[in-house]
Amino acid sequence: MDLICPICALPLRQEEKRLFCQKGHSFDIARQGYVNLLTVQQKHSLSPGDTREQVLSRRAFLEAGFYAPISQALNQAALDFSAQGEILDVGCGEGYYSARLAQAMAAPLTGLDISKEAVRCAAAKYKEHTWLCATAAHIPVEDGSVGTLTSLFAITVPEEFRRVLRRDGLFFQVLAAEDHLLGLKSIVYDRLTHKEKDLAPTLPGFQLLDSRPIRFSFQLEGEQIRSLFAMTPHLFRIGKAGAQRLAETTRLQDTASCILNVYRAI
Q1: How far apart are CA 173 and CA 262, in angstroms?
Q2: Which of 5, 48, 137, 235 gives 20 to 30 Å between its CA and that of 154?
Q3: End-to-end CA distance of the chain, in Å?
Q4: Using CA atoms, how far apart are residues 101 and 122, in angstroms rounded to an integer?
């Protein structure tokens, strides 16, 4: 996969422990193996994206296997639709899903996340892949150089995704359904509100090939509950009463409910 400079969009080349372009913009490869291509102008806060606490909570939860059915569904869909080419995972987090997809496809992988903590964690564990700190709104990748693109529980930027995907490339999108984690939500919030969600959105430049529901139940205890909570957006929305209820919860039976959409770039 060909990387481009996030400042001037010229091709990036590697020289020892740095990437650089012809205009002299240079980006160091961190000790853990990732590259920070997120410019100051692209930041909306000092440390955007997930915190270290969130990243470690997500890793603990995912590696315990609670969301393995989602990973398995993604891998199966890639097989069913004969996904090929280099993988780009936008919003890769700590790399759980895309590293397993890359293994299933026997394909090279580049993971991208706006959180430096996330890509640092991913690079430290999955050293054979490329990890970038960058924004989905300005993906530092050449036009048409991606064969398979994934975005799981992350932002979708159709125009930018279509730009980097080659024609007939595949985009695998996972969205949380309305009834996702109702058990946790009933603890966090005083009352639940119904919000309509478009779970099979029409995306410019893409053809929707398939939409597959993924639904399964699981049971958590103790710190596992806290790990799940810390990796969700509810972390930033919980009130005092919800925090008290969460602290008093020692066992949680819940259900994951999401949709796996498969799109083809046209």
Answers
A1: 7
A2: 5
A3: 20
A4: 14
Contacts of 30 (CB under 8 A, 6+ apart): 36, 120, 123
> What contacts 198, CB < 8 A, 6 or more positions away?
none
pLDDT at 229 exceeding the cut of 80: yes
Structure tokens belonging to residue 91: 């919003």
Cα–Cα dist 31/15, whole Å: 15
- Give dist(CA 90, CA 20) in Å, integer: 22
Name, in order, each residue with C-beta under 8 angstroms of 148's C-beta and a sequence gap of 6 or more. 78, 83, 84, 85, 86, 87, 88, 105, 107, 169, 170, 171, 172
Least confident window among 16-20, 40-44, 212-216, 252-256: 40-44
DSSP output for the chain: --BB-TTT-PBPEEETTEEE-TT--EEEBPTTS-EE---GGG-SSSS-S--HHHHHHHHHHHHTTTTHHHHHHHHHHHHHTT--S-EEEET-TTSHHHHHHHHHHT--EEEEES-HHHHHHHHHH-TTSEEEE--GGG--B-TT-EEEEEEESS---HHHHHHHEEEEEEEEEEEE-TTTTHHHHHHHSSS-------SS---TTEEEEEEEEEEEEEEEETHHHHHHHHTSGGGGT--HHHHHHHHH--EEEEEEEEEEEEEEE-
Q: Are 163 and 141 in contact (CB under 8 A)?
A: no
Average pLDDT over residues 172-190: 95
Contact predicate 111/132, CB 8 Å = yes
